[in-house]
Amino acid sequence: MKKLALVMMACFASSCFASSINTTKITRVLVGPGVGKNVMLTISPRPTNLPDCQTNQGYNYVFDGTTEVGKMTLGAVLTAYAAKSNVWLGGTGSCSLYNTIENLKHIVIK
Questions:
Q1: CA-based diameter of the chain, in Å?
Q2: CA distance 88 to 21
Q3: Is residue 74 part of a domain?
Q4: Is the dihedral of CA 69, 76, 78, 16 positive or negative?
Q5: Structural domain includes residue 3
Q6: What is the Rg, in whole angstroms, of the alpha carbon atoms belonging to the chain?
Q7: Distance between CA 14 and CA 76 in Å, rounded?
């Protein structure tokens, strides 16, 4: 029983409630002084399995564009956006970068 409780607690603290959408398009990318180091994405269609913290109606995912990984991610995002490519996006289940938008975990350009 203790092991089950530990697994459940780990699930709540991790990405058990993270969103993911296999085929979508990036329809809007927001960067600039108003959002600091963050890059915010709007996609269509939107994921349905959202974590509780994801309450923003305008944007679906956010990531830090200033890190090395963030710079690579921004390159992939802009490539997919410009080409209107389908992408697979997944979130982390947390909203630590912007309190109402889920952090982006990965992007796969299809």
A1: 51
A2: 6
A3: yes
A4: negative
A5: no
A6: 15
A7: 25
Is residue 65 included in any domain, yes or no?
yes
State both tokens at 75.
Answer: 């390159």
Residue with tokens 């390159």: 75
Q: Are 106 and 90 in contact (CB under 8 A)?
A: yes
Tokens linked to 34: 């108003």
Question: What pLDDT band is residue 48 in, cutting at 50, 70 and 90?
Answer: confident
State pLDDT tens for residues 9-47: 445 544 568 999 999 999 999 999 999 999 999 999 999
CB of 77 closer than 8 Å to CB of 26: yes
Number of domains within the chain: 1
Q: Is the pLDDT of residue 85 over 70?
A: yes
- Is residue 63 within 8 Å of 98, Cβ to Cβ? no
